[in-house]
Automatic annotation (TrEMBL):
It comes from the Eukaryota. It holds the Pfam family NmrA. InterPro entries: NAD(P)-bd_dom_sf (IPR036291), NmrA-like (IPR008030), NmrA-type/Isoflavone_red_sf (IPR050608), PCBER-like (IPR045312). This is NmrA-like domain-containing protein. The keyword NADP applies. GO terms for molecular function: oxidoreductase activity. Keywords: NADP, Oxidoreductase. Residues 5-308, 331-634 form the NmrA-like domain. It comes from Brassica carinata.
Amino acid sequence: MATEQSKILVIGGTGYIGKFIVEGSAKSGHQTFALVRESSLSDPVKGKIVQNFKDLGVTILYGDLSDKESLVKAIQHVDVVISTVGLSQLMNQINILSAIKESGNHIKRFLPSEFGNDVDRTMAIGPAKSEFAMKAEIRRVVEAEGVPYTYVINNCFDGYFLATLAQCETRLTSPPRDKVTIYGDGNAKAILNREEDIAEYTMRAIDDPRTLNKTVYINPSKNIVSQNEVVALWESKIGKSLEKTYVSEEELLKKIPESPHPLDLLLALNHAIFVKGDQTWFTIEPSFGVEASELYPDVKYTSVDEYLNQFVFQIALYSLVYQLSRNMATEKSKILVIGGTGYIGKFIVAESANSGHQTFALVREASLSDPVKSKVVQNFKDLGVTILQGDVNDHESLVKAIKQVDVVISSIGSMQILDQTKIISAIKEAGNVKRFLPSEFGTDVDRTSAVEPAKSAFAVKIQIRRAIEAEGVPYTYVVNNCFAGYYLPTLVQFEPGLTSPPRDKVTILGDGNAKAVINKEEDIAAYTIKTVDDPRTLNKILYINPPKNTLSMNEMVSLWETKISKSLEKTHIPEEQVLKLIQESPVPINVLLAINHSVFVKGDQTKFTIEPSFGLEASELYPDVKYTSIEEYLSHFA
């Protein structure tokens, strides 16, 4: 049958809905092509998507919307072109239309990037109105040029809206379990579809003469629901009533212009969908459209009810994992993490929970209303972590939290390092802690030749060490040296906007021969949790210095050059110039430069021998930890 099926080109296939469309095309037996920018291959996320396409038998064509020659060449391979480009590239679809015309008018069908509301039948306002206007403009050009088309209106993506019950102001990853915001009176009907189903209906439509020059609406009856109905359905599944906050239309209209981008766009979309009922206020007439589930009744789509079941299963699974963890915790220490919503803290909390420790996270009440931190906290809850509200400045909450555990790990940020004296005081009062790991997670501050302002930052950590020792609190200091996430994605470059290692030129501090140690955050967490119950590391320093992660800057650059098969132009900055730059740079650049001077010029992380009297090396103690080497980490960017 594949000989009768159209050959399909997807432009924008590495985007959100695009990857589902590409997979749906390939799995449906269509000869499938994906136009991909070469830069996508060096992106860790998109590179993985492209590899998945290849595994499915998709032909990868390299090109760009701004490169007409590559567009025409790609289009000449196929019968159908599907665009799934994002908001910022909507108007660039003019280039696709031009290329379709130039390729000889052999294209049987063009599907522009719609995949949302019907933009010709909307009452949207503000930023949503502007977005819809661009899509409407593309429609008019398609029609004026006489290009055969199908517009696919899938309405809402389940992954965007149903997974959070349309809570766009919170950053949830699963439906809320305590309170929910409802827009307007909650009675306007919306339509929510699973991404895989959208892809399947799209594939059905492209060779169907009934959908030629028509709008295909994906409006299956079981997926047409109001927000009130969705919330009630979720409540029935979890056996609990949620606290409901209704946001009136007037209040929402006021909030939209006051909100930063992209929240203003999300709120404007929610206004159109859940207040005005944009997706369901009109009747689909045969003159302009057809409904997908009526055309293709054999497609077994996922209903709203069925989609929500996966989250009920997750709750049960997390509960089971948590109970198992509690049972195992009889042999493992109970751990409290203070500063768990911070950079390294979230890795520590996750590893503690995943390792079977009964895990607690002390969280400030303000974090629960922070869009980013509240998402982290929700993830902790999903892992079975017990959230305790408190603050390092609230002695009572500290003592109460500490009394519930055996081990305290602090991962608070640089601005609160000295506040750890309050943790020490609370530990002394609680009287039950077997081990305290203060917020180190960097260079060994007792063995550094750092200059200002890094010297002062390290001195504060030294002060905490001495306070711990003077109070007789059992400890382990974790020295992980450099975070891979800070240094390796840019190969220690300060170039603004750089998100991957350079491919043309590189700056090297000093002569580039000083050895540094760089570790992946997940590995740091794994070694940290391994040490909490290890008597060998009691009152010692744990150095995370795996041999494959101990390299000089020159060695890292050489390794990267080998991976990309290209020599970089190297600029060495002598120590004298680095010291001058430190003095002339503003905060926090001066701090970063001073740390890099310590690490990559002075070699502070590797200039001494680890003696058994004060420390132990993690990869030797725990050879079963399969750490990620620098070479493996860089491979994601090659």
